[in-house]
TrEMBL record, chains A, B, C, D:
FMN binds at residues 125-127, 241-242, 286, 301-305, 327. It comes from Frigidibacter albus. NADP(+) binds at residues 48, 54. GO terms for molecular function: chorismate synthase activity; FMN binding. Reduced FMN (FMNH(2)). This is Chorismate synthase. NCBIfam families: aroC, PRK05382.1. Gene3D superfamilies: Chorismate synthase AroC. Pfam families: Chorismate_synt (PF01264). It comes from the Bacteria. The keyword Chaperone does not apply. Keywords: Amino-acid biosynthesis, Aromatic amino acid biosynthesis, FAD, Flavoprotein, FMN, Lyase, NADP. Its cofactor is FMNH2.
């Protein structure tokens, strides 16, 4: 792994800036013979696409992905897959003031401090636009997973926006695609709409928590210490823009449990496989998947580009107040849902290949 | 990075099992000319050493570290440093029952499923003993940091045990070394002692939250996407045994903030450097350090080896109830404090070298 | 490093097939603030461009490189640089027969065996067109080296074609750019032209040896064992299509030397630095540069696509004779000269950054 | 890969100095369930062991390897395997003069220049003793290969010493173990003994060429560009101390061939598999194995520690003449034979795992 690359065997390198000619992902190590095409990847990108409703940035981008290499006759060839998305709506003029002043809570100042220069147009490399490339790469990972592990599914949704959490008793997965928040609760969707309207109109923004669940994950994925499945999931989610916390299973709340409560007791299932009676562990023990649902949550901080003036400094060291005009998401966490799903897909495929490489995918028998 | 290795340039590979002849860390990429000796590393190991009070396992191990390579005349040579700790107190007989049955909430079952066999003596590779090797490697990282960044300090402490959180108003750093919990609050130390006694006597265990703060970190460490400083910190902390959640700065609570509140506003300090008026970001923006304190928290789940019977299955697929005898920590989170510090040291040094490699360590001027 | 990526800190991932829409290189880890533009990179690509004379393939490609990311205002930003070259002259019809039969001596059969399918158009990923992407990336590396190590120069040239070797007594560096063979000897250029004409007209091809010399390389680049400068140079050159041998300094001939002859004796130079009296080592001792010229040679086998029929089999397992029509180089080694230079530039920059990362670039004093 | 680590999935990190307490190899990523024990590894170490005859250094070392981790009940567990060899014969007093003066042709000066200090005792990290760790790791790789690819064999032998090459017409594999040179020719063994006696008595040393052949390698190992099988073999062999050239198949001589001669023509074998009529390619096309013998050669330069005085300088910059006393090999190439075999084993296993990871090891059918 490296600066802009993640993955051990299924390796994704994203590139590109918000307002450059294009951005994309270079995907290496994909199994050969996997059916992929641009329409399939476009499906996932369309889910993430901004400008779809008033809760995401009004920047209008078709975000059309092109496959420039690594596929032939509709199948992956095992060689690098280049996925390119051209930037078509680059209103650079919106960003004049940002060239001089650093948005508080934004990467503007650290990019300047580290590199001595920065592409200030729309946040450059630090823009959330980078996540479009992840979603495209995640589409390839999903296609490979579909071929290798039939029945595996990945579902992301929001469980919290600002102070409002979902009521788990009303959890309804069929609602997720029915509202702009990817929230599994119709009532919450209505309430959150009102809440977020207020946030937006007041020139403010707010954070969110996203949960991503993978079902049908084989037992045995992951490895000790730095190859732990949860290590890589934590890294994958924390690498998404604006993420400040990552939880596996019970997450931070695990601190409050006793060992008696935390033990996910085991019985033998009717299928002759281990049957866990609970899933505090989020499907991972000792860094290795148990075969239960893999459950990850991550918190996204509020967008730092807001219409309310905040105190900051300029490149010249002058103190100033800054209002960030432009088209910004009042809750960037909404668009993080498909991104979290994409990262889950990439990590699971990577670990599937890693495990197949080291162990041949043969499992220790029980019984 | 790989299965048992972490780091980009300062690379640590830990090896060894709980009840094998020895365990250790192979440290590659350390700068040359750094003063290290066994006594210096022993200091950090002694902080982590079990058997020091009734709140940690009564296993008595001197945990003496030897430097087998990579140092000459008291200085690192720039070649791999091998740190070995011999296992001297290997009461394998304690672990007979574990050979057959899988402890619920433990890696026993996943190691069996993945590898088809496991070293069941004391948890083998999945034992918390592995973290001794991290602490030794962290000692080397601290020595290098001391040489390269005078004034950088790393401090870990517990902020929660079970349901009991510290009162930040009573925070007193001088207390951290004065109690067995590394808690910065004398009153909490007393209360927690009573609480944990009860947990232990009832044959139970409990989780904890640890906070690690690094002060004096230069601005500019970290890089986009997968080389983010917080990405690597999340991975480093999540890779520690029993950790289920990681937070940077405000962490999961960032979801509740608005953009107005979350903005760490900036003024010019008297030293001509940026002065941040708050630190919701935990010292990292866009994956790159701001120069503020780097603040990480992680949750440790309760020890799964407990004296209360839990339902489980055996390797033969028979259902059974299991009590885990032996010498186990009622709160493994206590010993995670020096481990978290060690991981912070390793990650910071690694990013310091990475940054020096790519940018030469030259910073963009402000003003 | 990985399947299609090379480099430790300065990492280049090439992608693309001979007859796909485009090919290119994703360059990560470049120092920020380096002046690069498309014209500068085009200069190096034009040197490699086919169709310039009758000794290289008559495929006409402008091979125009575009910088899609990682530069702003003419300077590198420290983020990934995407270099794309569109394929404009894709005469796929030439390659019909190749879809069925495997060219002897070509990667056709192994790609089929490994991946189960292959992009047979022009060799797909195994085509020498991939090296255009390396030359573009090498252009970035040269720009960074020029900024970091003024005075460093890299020069490649042919020293052998088929059985004809250069006469070192006639070595004239000024001739290198004056003939289609990059040969430092005007007389050889004339003789080789006649020789290669004959090879080409007979429907045959021939191999070559290229030498690449880097002058002005600082002492101290490289590291023990797998980070050796010569290890990475050997890998870099062997990774070029059709290369079958790599030599450092005296290379294979070192076997014939005695220790007395091989010792590059050392005196003190007038500049107060070590002065080596010979350079059998090719500028590298123990994997680390000495400050002398770094000298690498590599052998390129003859093009396997020839007009003379050769026995082979088809995908269906039928035996057949194959003539490879199309526009092929009679000596692909000619175009390997700028490719070898590019790889040298990438390896040197990578090791410069690695060394700066680990040691800070501070050198042990002598005297 | 990194400074002292090689391999993608089967990763070997060697550590240790010639005269430190111990040296060894940390082996990560080994498949689980492979039968290994110390006696098995000792077998390979004994082949490399110095002091066995007058042609290798008279340093007497038992070179006994211990397995400190990663095996349980005689089987690998899939966790890191630590292999340690204690240094028992550390006559440091022999090396007094070397502390001050740099041996010409040796890494002494470059280690000093790079790191500012060096462990001068016996060459420290740059000593050929490091290769003992590789041989131990190679023993693990051989055991895994034996389990995964029955019938695969690896054989190394010398084909040249100084100016004396073997006569391929007299090649007799049964002779390899019958003489101190690992030469497949009884007559050459006798002649070389006389020749090397003379070299040794004159206080000189000489170089050699070693060939390593792997038979029974499955088709399909390797990958494009930097994951080429020959790329990694070139890197592996070039990383061995004193190696200056690496060849695959016809190697440097490929430059002299025409395309007609170089084409390894293909017919269908009686087993329904492709049958190659020659093997100029050395078993690798496009970086991927063909199923033929994989053939690698490498040249080892003469030992730089010789009894004949050579001109050099001291750390203080004083000019001097140096004679290197001590127990040195007149031809270090002899001991490189088992080392080359070990590296071949490591590279093949690594690529077997890599291929299994990406493709599942399923091969494209022919016919």
């Amino acid at each position: 792994m490296s600066l802009n690359t993640f993955g051990h065997l299924f390796r994704v390198t994203t590139w590109g800036e918000s307002h450059g000619p294009a951005l994309g992902a270079t995907v290496d190590g994909c199994p050969p013979g996997v059916a992929v095409d641009e329409a399939m990847l476009q499906h996932w990108l369309d889910r993430r696409k901004p400008g779809q409703n008033k809760y995401t940035t009004q920047r209008q981008e078709p975000d059309q992905v092109r496959i420039l290499s690594g596929a032939f006759g509709g199948l992956t060839t095992g060689t690098p897959i280049q996925l390119m998305i051209e930037n078509t709506d680059q209103r650079s003029k919106d960003y004049g003031e940002i060239a001089q002043a650093f948005r508080p809570g934004h990467a503007d100042i650290t990019y300047h401090q580290k590199y001595g220069l920065r592409d200030y147009r729309g946040g450059g490399r630090s823009s959330a636009r980078e996540t479009a490339a992840r979603v495209a790469a995640g589409g390839v990972a999903r296609a490979a997973l579909a071929a290798l592990v039939p029945g595996l599914s990945i579902t992301g949704y929001m469980v919290q926006i600002g102070p409002h959490r979902i009521d788990r008793a009303r959890f309804d997965a069929t609602q997720i695609d029915q509202n702009p928040f990817w929230v599994p609760d119709a009532q919450a969707a209505t309430e959150w709409a009102t809440y977020l309207d207020g946030v937006r109109k007041s020139g403010n923004s707010v954070g969110a928590v996203i949960e991503v669940v993978a079902s049908g994950v084989p037992a045995g994925l992951g490895a000790p210490v730095y190859g732990k499945l949860d290590t890589d999931l934590a890294a994958a989610m924390m690498s998404i823009n604006a993420v400040k916390g990552v939880e596996i299973g019970d997450g931070m709340a695990a601190a409050e449990l006793t060992g008696v409560d935390n033990a996910d007791e085991i019985r033998m299932g009717n299928d002759g496989k281990p049957l866990f009676l609970s899933n505090h562990a989020g499907g991972i023990l000792g860094g290795i998947s148990t075969g239960q649902d893999v459950v990850v949550r991550f918190a996204v901080k509020p967008t730092s580009s807001i219409l309310t003036p905040r105190r900051t400094i300029t490149v010249e060291g002058k103190e100033t107040d800054l209002i960030t005009k432009g088209r910004h998401d009042p809750c960037v966490g909404i668009r993080a849902v498909p991104v979290g799903e994409a990262m889950m897909a990439c990590v699971l495929l990577d670990h599937l290949l890693l495990d197949r490489g080291q162990t041949g995918g043969i499992r220790g028998q029980i019984g």
